[in-house]
Amino acid sequence: MPAPLPADAPAAAPADGPAATPVPASADADAPAPVPASVDADAPAPVLARPRLTATLLMAGSCLPILGAVLIAPVVPKLQDHFASVSGVDALAPVALTVPALSLAVMAPFAGAIIDRLGRHRLLVIATVFYAIVGTAPLWLDSLPAIIVSRALVGVAESAIMTCCTTLIGDYWSGRQREKYLALQAICSAVSATAFFALGGAAGSAGWRAPFWAYAVGLLLAPLLATMLRPTQRRQGTGAAPAEPTGPLLRRLLAPCALTFFGAIVFYTVPVETSFLLKDLGTEAPATIGLCTAIASAATVAGAAAFTRLTDRADRMLPWTLALCALGFGIIAVAGSVPLLVVGAVVNCLGTGLLLPTLITRTMTMLTPANRGRGTGLWNSAFFLGEFVCPLVLLAVAKPTGTLAHAIGLLGAAALAVAVGLAVTRARRGQSLRPAGSAAA
């Protein structure tokens, strides 16, 4: 008899369509995501007393890791000036900005394993309180190494928060509803990144410590998460599928996570590098940089919003989505003026807005309630590791190619090659499955 789910880890609702036939673990990265026969089909679905409030709280929680990634970016130069006497400050100050992403990537799989054992709700509340404590620690710390340690702990908290929120979206909703909220999560991430960057810049005018007060929002959010997220009742059901051993789960998610790692590099290139690209074109005015970044973020939001209308075709369109990202990179690579650069950024961000929810949705369909935490943790690890290495990869490629724009053009060529590979693989799979389908008919 299958083991029941913990009280705070509700199972997903029945999927919109019939359960799909399982696909072997060796299936390629572009194959439609395999769905174990037990996923969603037999699991009891939670009945949410306040579905809109639940969605709002999960979206708010999902924004917390974004806050950690961009909030202090505008004050890094001031942080560096404050600790100018510290040996190696030129390298340590940027690490204070990026170390949460690395910590999140390393810890997300462990957070996923804990979630599957102890439940999502309890860990989410604890992690949100811990996030507020370590996030505000630089307000009274006066040692750069100590601040970096606190930032690494922020990443630990973020790994639990992001994994819990995404897993709960998978638990509370299924089918098109789940896809809608995963796309909304991507939209909130894009919008909040722009808002938090502006907030960090405004607060930074009061000193480099001021933006860290924003982390205290965790203390306001935690009580709401504790009291509002737990479903009030459950439908009757047969229980959850037994937990899958970690080895087969890792093998099954290896290709999707590898694609997600590459997709994260593609996703973060424009947000991270726009200011440097504009500087290379002779534009350093903060207002211009902010406007260009906002326009690109709006394109990401538009792409994610379009995903909600293309959910039935989004996975099949993945090669075209990557090709659109590649086209944007190509335009950026040859841009000799700011307007053309913005056009390239918009084209690319339309593609990345489609890309992010497609990657997480196709992974979610491969997971059961019993392994959804571990699977989501692995996906988050791949995505945020890609975020962390994105500027490092482009910096390494820019040296032999000569300029950052040329490095981005090379990344565009790689994205196009991946898109072609996915399209060819899908076509070959379609041809191999067609005779079998004809024979069965």
UniProtKB/TrEMBL annotation:
Record-annotated membrane-spanning stretches: 57-76, 91-111, 123-141, 147-169, 181-200, 212-229, 249-268, 288-310, 317-335, 341-360, 381-398, 404-424
Region described as Disordered: spans on this chain: 1-37
Single annotated GO MF: transmembrane transporter activity
Main location per the UniProt record: membrane
Record's compositionally biased regions (Low complexity): 8-37
Domain Major facilitator superfamily (MFS) profile: start-end pairs: 54-431
CC annotations in GO: plasma membrane
The protein's name in its UniProt record: MFS transporter
Organism placement in taxonomy: Bacteria, Bacillati, Actinomycetota, Actinomycetes, Kitasatosporales
